Amino acid sequence: MSEDLFKRLVSHCKEYGFIYPSSEVYEGLNGVYDYGPMGVELKNNIKDYWWKAMVQMHDNIVGLDSAIFMHPKIWKASGHVDAFNDPLVDNKDSKKRFRADVLIETEIDKMIAKADKEVEKAAKRFGDTFDEKMFRETNPRVLEYTQKALDTEKRLAAALKTGDMADLKTMIDELEIAEPDTGSRNWTEVRQFNLMFSTQMSNIGGDDGKLYLRPETAQGIFVNFLNVQKTTRQKIPFGIAQIGKAFRNEIVARQFIFRMREFEQMEMQYFVRPGTEMEWYNYWKEKRMAWHRAVTPAEKLRFKDHDNLAHYANAAVDVQFEFPFGFKELEGIHSRTDFDLGSHSELSGKKMQYFDPELNEHYTPYVVETSVGCDRMFLTVLSNALVDETVPDAKGEDSTRTVLRLAPALAPVKCAVLPLLRNNEELVGKAREIYDQLKFLFLCQYDEKDAVGRRYRRQDAIGTPYCVTVDHETLENGTVTIRERDSMQQERVAISEVARIVSERVDMRKIL
Ligand code: ATP
Q1: Which of 126, 208, 213, 339 satisfies CB 3.0 to 4.6 Å to 197 for a cystine?
Q2: CA-proximal residue: ligand 1, atom 21 (nearest)
Q3: Ligand 1 center to residue 264 CA distance, Å?
């Protein structure tokens, strides 16, 4: 999908009530979005898909809904107060802010693109006899670009690991990185910027009353580990799952709902015996990839190991999706060791351990985390689904239609009920009757406005998988047509069969 199609997607979201910019009447609020009537349905279905796959399908995973506000010491123990930073750099001329690491990463991408371009040119020149591997290993220009990309990547990872902001600035200067819009190379020093939002509790003044809006939902799970384990009597290994809002004061939030300042996470922490964490890490890698593949083409997904491990992790991988702007993180899977439980035990003075009856010993469990952004999943699902296609119209001539090819289980509206004519009382009455029955089962729409062809197009554009049309034959023999969104094929069925047929086809089981 190109940048153009990405723009189409953003405008489609607004036009059909999926996503609106927040506070739009006041010119919007950067990095914050509102979900409209269709958006909230799709988002709820995504959450439901996740919840069912994680909680309902596993008898050793239970849910939690912890508060957004938590004791400020939690963020000290978790390392967020000291280390949840991004390197910030300002351009003195344009006054725009950037993440220094992202500027350098973009430069690395350019080096790789240059090498690829050389390969592409040579492939054209040599035709069938071209040996790409040999060319990459011997062509001086390709070698130079590739080596430079590798060196820069290594140096960036080292600077980020040690927090060497000065070296990031030197790299920006040495690589002659310019501000993308203005070309200016007039940069400030690079400094650490903490991504947590803070606010103040009313009854406690000063630093003691300073609260943070949680930057991840995971900590609510860790501090409830003992509560949940005791009340559910789960034995290790077991998991706690949570869906909820998280807040990050992102330096740059420019890619629609890919990077927001307020967003939602679907996280699961899996508590395991120390020493077994890599086994579970690999297990969850595969499980999570299978969950994605059920709704996303495999070639648009890939794993990317982390070069730069966070302070709490001994292994980490991203599930990346090919967004309109390239392969980027959709989900993170992390082996978090006993870091979180260990440091909460230490700072709170309350032991967060588990007694393992099989081993007859106490230990601090290790944790494998799966963390997927609900909004990024939403963007993934929509990027896969939005298609403009040419189809024959009623007269058999070419016309274009926009269709959201969503998995039926995720579609906001499952079924539309349409009387062929709006001014025929019998047709309208019958259609209303069918609608009134179906609405108990799933979200339906009743629509009688405009010609039926236009109504089909409106439903296509919001991804409704089935349209039930009540026509003259309905009044004669009690049958209706069901039109399927993607094939546009219609089948005639008895009214008494509609609920069963549609229910079966939109069932979440199809993707679980
Ligand atoms: P990135 O490198 O893109 O900033 P991250 O590595 O900081 O992401 P995690 O801390 O692993 O992200 O968070 C888990 C998931 O939460 C991510 O995979 C992503 O789907 C989602 N997420 C994180 N930050 C944002 C954001 N600003 N807006 C929307 N979703 C986000």
Answers
A1: 213
A2: 373
A3: 10
Tell me the mean pLDDT in the region 22-31. Answer: 95
- pTM beyond 0.85: the answer is yes
Ligand 1 surroundings by CB, under 6 angstroms: 216, 248, 250, 259-260, 263, 265, 329-332, 371-373, 375-376
Tell me what the mean pLDDT of segment 413-434 comes to: 97
Set out the domains of the chain in order of their start, with CATH numbers: 1-71+195-389 (3.30.930.10), 85-192 (3.30.40.230), 393-510 (3.40.50.800)
Nearest to 3 by CA among 273, 256, 318: 256
The residue type at 279 = E
Give the DSSP letter string of 152-193. Answer: HHHHHHHHHHHT-HHHHHHHHHHTT---TTT----B---EEE
> How far, in Å, is the centroid of ligand 1 from the Cα of 158?
21
- Rounded CA-CA distance 96/408 in Å is 43
Nearest to 415 by CA among 459, 470, 481, 454: 459
